[in-house]
Amino acid sequence: MELSERITQITAGGSDGWDVFYRARRMVSEGHAISELTIGEHDIRTDPSILQAMDLSARDGHTGYAMVPGTDLLRDTVAARVQMRTGVPTTRHNVLITPGGQSALFAAHVAVCDPGDVGLYLDPYYATYPGTIRGVGAIARPVQTNAEDAFQPRSEQIETHADGAVSLLINTPNNPTGVVYSRKTIEDIADLCRRRDLWLISDEVYDTQVWQGEHVSPRALPGMAERTLVVGSMSKSHAMTGSRCGWVVGPEEVIAHLINLATHTTYGVPGFIQDAASFALNAGTGLEEDIAAPFRRRRALALETLAKQNIVGLVPAQGAMYLMLDIRATGHTGEEFANALLDTRAIAVMPGESFGQAAAGHVRVAMTVDDDRFATALKTLCEFAATLAGRRAAE
To answer: Quick one: residue 268, left, alpha or beta (phi over 0 = left, psi -120 to 50 = alpha)?
Structure first.
């Protein structure tokens, strides 16, 4: 007997590119002191008030099967939030609650891609994007963006890859680059989707973490509400990564079909989790700002540190909890640099190549340790890069 090609080819038969991360975690388990600047996990856990709401709901008996589409309360809350932030009329019938943003990404692609269809995604990309597209039986086709353009995608680049495509997946504020797509970028992408009759899947899980510029949801642009599926999540905005609560927002017909999909796959999200999410969203923007504050603060620390040297370049750090650093002046690939940094300085960062080829020669730094430790690690990284660049110049 053989396994399905779909399941065995989720990572295209190769590595997922996260070898440095796995090695760092092994070193930590062996007792080594490693400064981990790898994954997007808050160093401050879920707010106690949210946990209290979760506990009260569970103790009040909301531990059985919840409504598969999501509770009316949470769907209404998400709809109201989306409508307030975008101006687009939105009701519970436009919302499906999912077990986290990743489940929402998968569901969105199931909705619009048949086996053999082409799904486009932008490189650099969040690690699961190509595997998610392959997982629904579609062909994952990357579109490279350019470091010289600060990784802002150009519609003409996307168009050269659009033949046969049915969908395009974008992410702003962006993981891994930290770039926020400009209004012009979003408008150009929307125009392309309308002209080429593409579904647009917009991953907006970092929409509360914007340090510079503005977040523009493409669903709010003319003619886009009927062809856009928005992915959201409680993970980043409210530090609820382990609670696994996300959503898809889209046309009513699509959501109706996705409810059918959820009935046959996830069968919904625990009610006490949803009640806690409703509480958190209704707590207002103040709580969201408190959760975002450490990353805003550490970005400022990073700008100060990086301004004192000229070896490590910074891709515009406009949003999210990451920095994308250009280390090409060292003469090393991102993977070589990250491995050497881990071995010699006990600092773990992600190679740019972990997120595709467009970010080769870069490393991604997650701003997810306390301020002092973060500032020290970044300074050490810069000093290490200067040492490598000096050796290169001397050769």
So the answer is: left
The 3-state DSSP class for residue 113 equals coil
Both tokens assigned to 375: 């500032």
* Separation between Cα atoms, residue 328 and residue 290, nearest integer Å: 35
Residues 79, 97: Cα–Cα separation, whole Å: 11
10 Å CB burial of residue 114 (0-12, 13-18, 19+) is: exposed
Out of 3.90.980.10, 3.40.50.880, 3.40.50.300, 3.90.1150.10, which CATH number does the structure's domain 5-45+286-389 have?
A: 3.90.1150.10
Does this model's pTM top 0.85? My answer is yes
298 neighbors 322 (Cβ within 8 angstroms) = no
Are 120 and 168 spatial neighbours (Cβ–Cβ below 8 Å)? yes
Structure tokens of 380?
A: 């050490």
Task: Sketch the domain layout of the chain as residue ranges.
Answer: 5-45+286-389, 64-284
Residue 346 near residue 32 (C-beta atoms within 8 A): yes
CATH number attached to the domain at 64-284: 3.40.640.10
Q: Yes or no: say if 60 and 43 are a contact pair by the CB < 8 Å rule.
A: no
Centroid of chain to Cα 160: 25
Residue type (1 letter), 91: T
Sheet with 362-366, strands from edge to edge, namely 35-37, 347-351, 362-366, 322-326, 313-314
Residue-by-residue DSSP string for 264-322: TTT----HHHHHHHHHHHHT-HHHHHHHHHHHHHHHHHHHHHHTT-SSSEE----BTTE
Instruction: List the pLDDT tens digit at each of the 395 positions of the chain.
Output: 999 988 998 887 655 668 889 999 999 999 999 999 999 999 999 999 999 999 999 999 999 999 999 999 999 999 999 999 999 999 999 999 999 999 999 999 999 999 999 999 999 999 999 999 999 999 999 999 999 999 999 999 999 999 999 999 999 999 999 999 999 999 999 999 999 999 999 999 999 999 999 999 999 999 999 999 999 999 999 999 999 999 999 999 999 999 999 999 999 999 999 999 999 999 999 999 999 999 999 999 999 999 999 999 999 999 999 999 999 999 999 999 999 999 999 999 999 999 999 999 999 999 999 999 999 999 999 999 999 998 888 87
